[in-house]
Design goal:
With about 250 residues, this protein is α/β, with parallel strands linked by helices. The strands form 2 sheets. It has a 7-stranded mixed sheet with strand order 3-2-1-4-5-9-8, sandwiched between helices. The chain is built from 8 helices and 9 strands.
């Protein structure tokens, strides 16, 4: 990390090519957490409501990282899923996870949570890998370079606030996220709240400490039907960089 001379460190100050996805997976998902289960249930419920109802959607997940559960939540409604990820190490990790023949136990657990959340409207297979491989494409790209008005729905879990310490860059990431879907498209996101940074294999990475008010302020001009849900917010960190989150759904304007 190269500190910025003008204050908080920006996204470009960090060596994202050195991000260790396996370490991150083991630290954050090695033991499934109840808060992640709440996020999965909430995301599946949001996809049930996503319009047009009953139709398959072209979906993007922004800043996927070493995480399959955003793709699992999207898959039941997806004609196509684009995993839009910047770090080359994470791109390779995601491709390898999707190519494997057996789910890790942690992903199997989260898939069972998604299955239960989608019932009774949808009957889903015990093994989601064939469905994910058929629908998902991993693409390397920055949140700041998302094309506008491209997808029917977009998800973003723990990305915009976890790539910079600068409020202006957080705002821009949220703007790009909200504008990457067609007008009226569904926005589904989760944000770390009250966090102060995290380390991956001993390397520091940034977090912008944001509040519910900050997030609502950013999305107010970008979306309608904004709903938020506070999940597991506590004063002390539960894991490195994590003390709770805010789940958000909205429709892009």
């Amino acid at each position: 990390m190269t500190p910025d001379s003008d204050g908080p460190a920006g996204n470009a100050s960090y060596s994202w090519s050195d991000f260790d996805p396996e370490y991150y997976f083991n630290h954050y998902y090695g033991e499934p957490h109840a808060d992640d289960e709440v996020v999965i249930r909430s995301a599946c419920a949001a996809f049930k409501r996503a319009e047009p109802l009953g139709e398959k959607l072209d979906i993007v997940d922004v800043g996927t990282g070493p995480n399959l559960f955003p793709l699992m939540c999207a898959a039941p409604r997806a004609a196509r899923i684009t995993a839009w990820e910047y770090a080359e190490s994470n791109v390779g990790w995601l491709q390898a996870e999707l190519a494997t023949t057996t789910l890790r136990p942690q992903w199997q657990h989260f898939w069972q949570v998604a299955q239960a959340a989608c019932e009774p409207e949808l009957s889903l297979p015990e093994d989601p890998l064939p469905m994910l491989r058929a629908a998902a494409e991993v693409r390397r790209g920055s949140v700041y370079d998302l094309p506008e008005r491209t997808w029917d729905a977009a998800t973003m879990f723990f990305c915009a606030e976890s790539i910079t310490e600068k409020r202006s860059e957080f705002d821009l990431a949220c703007h790009r996220f909200a504008r990457c879907v067609k007008p009226g498209g569904s926005l589904i996101a989760a944000f770390l709240v009250g966090s102060s940074g995290y380390a991956v294999a001993g390397r520091p990475f940034p977090v912008l400490n944001v509040s519910e008010a900050d997030i609502l302020d950013v999305f107010a001009p970008l979306a309608t039907n904004i709903r938020t849900e506070r999940i597991g917010i506590v004063e002390a960190e539960i894991r490195s960089g994590y003390s709770g989150m805010l789940f958000l759904t909205a429709r892009a304007v």
